[in-house]
Specification:
By secondary structure, the chain is an all-alpha fold. The protein has one domain. Helices cover 82% and strands 0% of the residues. It contains 16 helices and no strands. The protein has helices at residues 3-56, 62-82, 85-93, 99-117, 123-126, 138-162, 168-184, 191-224, 229-256, 265-290, 298-341, 352-380, 386-406, 412-441, 448-456, 461-493. The longest helix has 54 residues, at 3-56. The relative contact order is 0.18.
Length: 494
């Protein structure tokens, strides 16, 4: 065999080896890709625990606080993965925001809301789900909070994996209730409060859906079904954006600025009315300029709702960060206070380093795992465009205001998803109504294409049933899991 043949064979062997290595690298990258998110999450949880060790200092309970910080970081990650989708899903589904843009805006405004206006007291304890004084000792209280935190995080993680947007507030409430029952019996639970929370399972989505459907009906009647859509839009879009501005100003005054200043409902409504009037006046020339040259068709109207929708998503994220960060770090702050002072009956303030864990955890969770639920809320329940998504965002703000006025506990998750359902079911009803009119006007028309169009607009029943089932079992599932974890912790501690 000649040297040339040997060299050729050697090169062929080398090529085959390199190809095997390339295939191995591709396979390794494919297998490793799903592990990137959990890997980064684990690093964040470890860093949160180290942060707790640095700021809490050395004491007899340092180890417990380190573990609690890890659980709090885990819960914050899950809130980012699940709850934030409700704010960003409609804007992404309507193509007003890209997925990357939504994640960036949400991360910034969720963190700002959490750090600037969030967590004045621990809501899950201050609301009286259980009576802290019913706990025998500070150690029992700490174990109960650990169990509540871990059970809520595990339940939200499972819901995210299944693809169901659930209420993280209800998850924490269920966790606190289950641990409280395990620690001190059924008498420790404030059942009147739990009854109100159970009522919110129905009130939140129904109210959110009804308000979203009402605004969609208004937009269709006053703008979309008009002969001159652009002229109608010039008249009504500034009014709608003004209502949105006023609603969000009231919403943020009521729910998002508790730490900065406490405002009663009447003052918040006056602030909202003033802001709404200013926004309406400013938007008149803006909409007039945007509408120049637009064609008289529905697609052109989407341009006019794009910016308001993005702004509404950012404001919802700010308010969500201000309110729901306590779900992640409230029990952690309670553990820190009980570990430092031994006092577990007083209202609990959240330290800054604990708030940082919550804010960063929500942002990381959104970035790593949020797209799945954002797609679910934004496009897989029903098809959204900027007008429909605007109705969902506006209903979220107005529903919270109405609920505050009536003194009803509501869930931001249930309101937002209920708004999506409301828009979808209204579209079903409206399409059916219009088709009946068309069949009466033209009895000989072929109904099959109309039926196909109607069927494509239906709310996806499989997602509807999955989400409703997850909502109903959230509190009992988190409570059961929390009670089991509490018993395990007490066995280990003893």
């Amino acid at each position: 065999m000649s040297n040339n043949d040997l060299e050729t064979r050697h090169l062929e062997t080398l090529d085959r080896d390199l190809e095997r290595l390339s295939n191995l690298e591709r396979a390794t990258a494919y297998v490793a890709r799903p592990m990137v998110g959990p890997g980064i999450s684990l690093i964040f949880i470890v860093l949160a625990s180290l942060l707790a060790m640095i700021f809490f200092g050395e004491s007899t309970n340092t180890f417990i606080v380190i573990i609690a910080a890890g659980f709090g970081a885990y819960m914050a990650l899950n809130i980012g993965a699940n709850d934030v989708a409700n704010n960003m899903g409609p804007a992404v589904g309507a193509n007003a925001l890209t997925m990357g843009g939504a994640i960036a805006i949400a991360a910034i405004f969720e963190s700002a809301g959490a750090l600037l206006a969030g967590g004045d007291v621990v809501s899950t304890i201050a609301k009286g789900i259980i009576a802290p004084e019913s706990m025998q000792t500070a150690s029992v209280f700490i174990w109960a909070m650990l169990a509540a935190l871990l059970s809520a995080a595990l339940w939200v993680n499972l819901a995210t994996w299944v693809g169901a947007p659930v209420s993280t507030t209800h998850s924490v409430v269920g966790g606190v209730m289950g641990a409280g029952i395990a620690a001190a019996g059924f008498a420790a639970v404030n059942w009147a409060t739990m009854g109100k929370i159970a009522a919110s399972w129905v009130i939140s989505p129904v109210l959110g859906g009804a308000i979203a459907a009402a605004f969609l009906w208004f937009i269709k009647a006053r703008i979309i079904y008009q002969d001159d859509k652009i002229a109608a839009a010039r008249k009504w879009v500034p009014v709608l954006v003004g209502i949105m501005g006023g609603a969000f100003a009231t919403y943020l005054a009521l729910k998002g600025l508790k730490k900065v200043i406490k405002i009663d409902l009447l003052t918040a409504l006056m602030i909202g009315a003033t802001v709404g009037a200013v926004v309406w006046a400013v938007m008149i020339p803006v909409i007039k300029k945007q509408s120049i040259g637009l064609e008289n068709r529905n697609k052109s109207l989407k341009v006019l709702f794009g910016i308001p929708l993005v702004v509404s998503a950012a404001l919802l994220s700010f308010a969500h960060g201000a309110n729901d960060v306590a779900n992640a770090v409230g029990p952690l702050a309670a553990i820190v206070q009980a570990s430092q002072s031994g006092d577990f009956t007083a209202a609990v303030s959240i330290p800054l380093w604990v708030m940082v864990i919550g804010a960063l955890g929500i942002s990381f969770g959104l970035f790593l795992f949020g797209p799945k639920l954002i797609r679910m809320v934004g496009s897989q329940i029903t098809k959204l465009n900027p007008m429909r998504a605007y109705c969902v965002a506006l209903s979220a703000a107005i529903t919270v205001i109405v609920a505050s006025w009536l003194g009803l506990p509501v869930s931001s998750t249930h309101i937002a998803v209920g708004g999506v359902f409301g828009v979808g079911f209204f579209r079903e009803w409206d399409a059916e109504r219009r088709m009946k009119k068309a069949r009466i006007a033209m009895p000989s028309a072929n109904a099959r294409p109309q039926e196909e169009r109607r069927r494509r607009k239906l709310v996806r029943r499989s997602h509807f049933m999955t989400i409703i089932a997850a909502w109903v079992i959230t509190v009992p599932a988190a409570a059961t899991l929390s009670a089991l974890i509490f018993f395990v912790i007490t066995l280990i501690a003893s």
